[in-house]
From TrEMBL, chain B:
Transmembrane helix keyword on record: yes
GO molecular function term, any single one: oxidoreductase activity
Membrane topology classification: Multi-pass membrane protein
UniProt key word Membrane: yes
Cited PROSITE patterns: CYTB_NTER
TM regions (residue ranges): 39-67, 96-114, 126-146, 193-215
Organism: Virgibacillus halodenitrificans
Record protein name field: Menaquinol:cytochrome c reductase cytochrome b subunit
GO CC terms: plasma membrane
Gene3D superfamilies: Cytochrome Bc1 Complex, Chain C
Assembly notes: The main subunits of the menaquinol:cytochrome c complex are a Rieske-type iron-sulfur protein (QcrA), a cytochrome b (QcrB) and a cytochrome c (QcrC).
Automatic annotation (TrEMBL), chain C:
Keyword terms, alphabetized: 2Fe-2S, Disulfide bond, Electron transport, Iron, Iron-sulfur, Membrane, Metal-binding, Oxidoreductase, Transmembrane, Transmembrane helix, Transport
Entry similarity comment: Belongs to the Rieske iron-sulfur protein family.
Gene Ontology MF: a single term: oxidoreductase activity, acting on paired donors, with incorporation or reduction of molecular oxygen
Protein purpose: Component of the menaquinol:cytochrome c reductase complex. The Rieske protein is a high potential 2Fe-2S protein.
Keyword Membrane: yes
Organism: Virgibacillus halodenitrificans
Ranges for domain Rieske: 88-161
Pfam families (alphabetical): Rieske (PF00355)
InterPro entries: Rieske_2Fe-2S, Rieske_2Fe-2S_sf, Rieske_Fe-S_prot, TAT_signal
Assembly notes: The main subunits of the menaquinol:cytochrome c complex are a Rieske-type iron-sulfur protein (QcrA), a cytochrome b (QcrB) and a cytochrome c (QcrC).
Lineage: superkingdom: Bacteria
Entry's transmembrane regions: 12-34
This protein's name: Menaquinol:cytochrome c reductase iron-sulfur subunit
Length: 92, 224, 170
């Protein structure tokens, strides 16, 4: 970043009066090894994301999330996994 | 029009360098599935974040209908699920997302582990990642109780028993989590709600920010 | 293809596609959530039936009397009984009138001859709002509309009241 003498500011601020053209590097001049994050790489990532989202939404539509009866501390019948027993993985 | 609005703002607060910093950098070939298909493993981190975004959004919307109170929690969830249009889908997104995010997170961790991407200089980011993993587990544990159904209640009962097994401070830890030494009830639910909705997400945001900033500072690890 | 035509650069094309894909993802995520959030607006208003307020028609006089009754209110997941009240009387034509006591100014509760200074009027104590016996607001007092009127029906000699309705004529 250009600092020091010769820098012109807008008013008394730190924002430079000279506007840099808002055109990023053309990465095609460096072929092969890398590509721009925006928009090239991000597009590929988001394509994957879109496919993932479709799959995920299909899952949520196909399988409504379960909701059992309201919590009843006296009704541990189905959950015999009470204090002191060791059956954490056998129940659910 | 948009360009003019952008220019107007940019004139005043010089935002171009900010978004340039975020968007304008190069990505090496070896993480690009278009070059080597096996590079799809690099997607897991991004997908984890995507599911986190889904969780945040769906969670925000769910609180419109949810009450953290033992009388009404279950009723409000039942109402949301049965009476509100698309309520079932939004709750479904949050419910399934909670599992999917753990799966994605583990796949991402496996990728980092087997590629040795955690090695110097990236050890710090590995540690931050492990902390994020713990936060996620905490979110899963506290969120599980919130619908206040029977399964949630006894799962929390079990979870609290496990917390009690911690040497020396176990008893106090359980009381701290449950809000009462003996009862899993009204105070437990509000505590879990606060932890689930405010404390853990706050910590998660901070850690995610660190995680991402470190990636940008250190770059993606080299190819195998 | 003329050279004049603006070419879409590769970068621009990718930007548009990126915006499209991003929009698709945002829409896919947000559509169910927004639909859920706006559900109260789109829900059909449930119309409660008319309810017996426990007042026989023959007991209704020319003098407005206050009637209180309870209705079952369903508020999302919360069901409760809330009380309603009305000022009921027979007007000069012998028709039964049932006014809502909710002041049209700021929602306080009006009562018949609530102030000694204004006989034969409904009076709201909050800001001295007044209504004539036919429910129209007295010009120059805070309320800007007449009192709401309950839907009503007489069955088996008893008065049944429903929802308060805005009055068209002012």
């Amino acid at each position: 970043m250009h600092k020091g003498k010769g820098m012109k500011f807008v008013g008394d601020s730190r924002i430079s009066a000279e506007r840099k053209p808002n055109i990023p590097k053309d990465y095609s001049e460096y072929p092969g090894r890398t590509e721009a994050f925006w928009p090239n790489f991000l597009l590929k990532e988001w394509l994957v994301g879109a496919v993932f989202l479709v799959g995920f939404l299909s899952l949520t539509v196909a399988h409504p999330s379960p909701l059992e009866g309201m919590a009843d501390p006296t009704n541990a019948a189905i959950y015999h996994c009470r204090i002191g027993t060791s059956c954490f993985y056998t129940n659910y | 029009m948009l360009q003019k609005m952008y220019d107007w703002i940019d004139d005043r607060i010089d935002i171009t360098p900010i978004w340039r910093d975020i968007a304008d950098h190069e990505v090496p070939e070896h993480v690009n599935p278009a070059h080597h298909f096996s590079a799809f493993v690099y997607c897991f981190g991004g997908l984890t974040f995507f599911v986190v975004v889904i969780q945040i959004l769906s969670g925000m919307f769910l609180t419109m209908y949810y009450v953290p109170d033992i009388e009404n929690a279950w009723k409000s969830v039942y109402y949301l699920q049965t009476e509100v249009a698309h309520g079932q889908i939004v709750r479904g997104m949050h419910h399934w997302g909670a599992s999917v995010v753990i799966v994605m997170l583990l796949l991402h961790t496996l990728r980092v582990f087997f590629q040795g991407a955690y090695k110097k200089p990236r050890e710090l980011n590995w540690m931050v990642g492990v902390l994020i993993f713990f936060i996620m587990l905490g979110l899963g544990f506290t969120g599980y109780l919130l619908p206040w159904d029977n399964k949630a209640y006894f799962a929390t009962q079990v979870g609290l028993e496990i917390a009690e097994q911690v040497p020396f401070i176990g008893g106090d830890l359980k009381t701290l989590l449950a809000g009462d030494p003996n009862i899993v009830g009204a105070q437990t639910l509000t505590r879990f709600f606060a932890i689930h909705v405010f404390f853990l997400p706050g910590a998660l945001f901070a850690l995610l920010a660190v995680h991402f900033i470190l990636i940008r500072r250190q770059g993606i690890s080299g190819p195998l | 293809m003329s050279e004049e035509k603006q070419q879409v650069s590769r970068r621009q094309f990718l930007n548009y596609t990126l915006t499209g894909v991003g929009g698709f993802m945002a829409a896919g995520m947000l559509a169910p959530m927004l639909r859920m959030a706006v559900d109260p607006v789109l829900k059909e208003e449930k119309h409660g039936g008319l309810i017996n307020v426990g007042l026989a028609v023959e007991d209704i006089t020319n003098e407005p009397q206050r009637v209180d009754w309870k209705i079952d209110q369903v508020d999302g997941w919360y069901e409760s009984q809330v009380s309603r009240s009305a000022w009921v009387f027979k007007d000069d034509n012998g028709d039964i009138q049932a006014f809502s006591p909710i002041c049209k100014h700021l929602g306080c509760v009006v009562s018949w001859e609530g102030s000694d200074q204004y006989p034969n009027q409904f009076y709201c104590p909050c800001h001295d709002g007044r209504y004539y016996k036919d429910g129209t607001n007295v010009p120059g007092t805070p309320p800007l509309a007449p009192l709401d009127v309950y839907e009503q029906e007489v069955k088996d000699g008893m008065l049944f009241l429903g929802e308060p309705q805005l009055r068209e004529e002012a």
